[in-house]
């Protein structure tokens, strides 16, 4: 694991900051690939999505801390037969140059070594996400 990155449990006090980061990440991706400036999954910009992901007993959610700053989060769902679902992974766009998405993904793979299959849902227009997931052998 990268020594500049920490993964910690998400608390309700984190929801506001994580929602701000999630909103920024999703809106950037949407505006990059479409004429729409703001869009994401239901609840991405009002705090309800991060709350649902974090409080769902079937998921494991962690905030990503880089150099002491919260920069994103991820949520993993574990299904029978060692099939894992990457429910959510988002990183603050301001940290793109550090390639944190790839670093975090590699750390996730190391943490969940029992995973035989990884799946994820992402919008059809998110070409950058599709490339990232395919490069990392995640089934879309």
Structure description:
The chain is α+β, with helices and mostly antiparallel strands and 140 residues long. Helices cover 34% and strands 26% of the residues. Strands 1-2-3-4-5 form a 5-stranded mixed β-sheet, with helices on both faces. The mean pLDDT is 84.
Mean pLDDT: 84
Number of helices in the DSSP assignment:
4
- The N- to C-terminal Cα distance equals 25 Å
Low-confidence stretches: none
- Tell the overall outline: globular
The helical percent reads: 25-40%
Q: Let me know the number of strands.
A: 5
Strand content: 25-35%
User: What structural class results from the helix and strand content?
Assistant: alpha+beta
- What can be said about the biggest beta sheet? 5 strands, mixed
**What is the element string, with H for helices and E for strands?**
EHHEEEHEH
Instruction: Describe the strand arrangement of the main beta sheet, using strand numbers.
Output: 1-2-3-4-5
Roughly how many Å is the radius of gyration?
Answer: 14 Å
């Amino acid at each position: 694991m990268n020594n500049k990155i920490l993964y910690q449990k998400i608390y309700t006090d984190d929801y506001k900051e994580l929602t701000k980061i999630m909103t920024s990440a999703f809106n950037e991706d949407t505006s990059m690939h479409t004429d729409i400036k703001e869009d994401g999954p239901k609840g991405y910009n009002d705090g309800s999505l991060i709350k649902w992901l974090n409080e769902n007993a079937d998921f494991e959610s962690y905030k990503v801390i880089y150099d002491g700053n919260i920069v994103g989060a991820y949520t993993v769902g574990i299904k029978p037969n060692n099939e894992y679902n990457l429910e959510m992974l988002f990183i603050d766009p301001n940290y793109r140059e550090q390639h944190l998405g790839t670093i975090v993904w590699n750390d996730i793979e190391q943490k969940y070594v029992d995973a035989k299959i990884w799946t994820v849902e992402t919008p059809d227009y998110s070409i950058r996400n599709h490339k990232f997931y395919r490069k990392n052998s995640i089934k879309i």
